[in-house]
Amino acid sequence: MSSDVTHVNDANFEGEVLQSTIPVLVDFWAEWCQPCHALAPVVQDIAQEYRGRLKVVKLNVDENLATPGRYNIRGIPTLLLFKKGEIKDQIVGAVPKEAVEKVLERHLTP
Description:
Glutaredoxin
């Protein structure tokens, strides 16, 4: 995992995500989830390419139960895009990088 992707948990989610001054893409995942592993390189690429415009974090749903429950995460992988503490978009499942970029471009200012 590169320094472009931060691991968050229930305890620091509010500070790292909800109070962030830039938009945050949250990857809800689990170690046993094969589609999550398939999506991981996409998440990593997004983190590198959008550095400075977007914060990218991962939250393990097996180790942190409160946050996925709060956001009604029913399947993983799920990506939630937060901006100013509010959910702006959601992607469920292992999708191609282009699909993630399309969602991000709708919400990020150049």
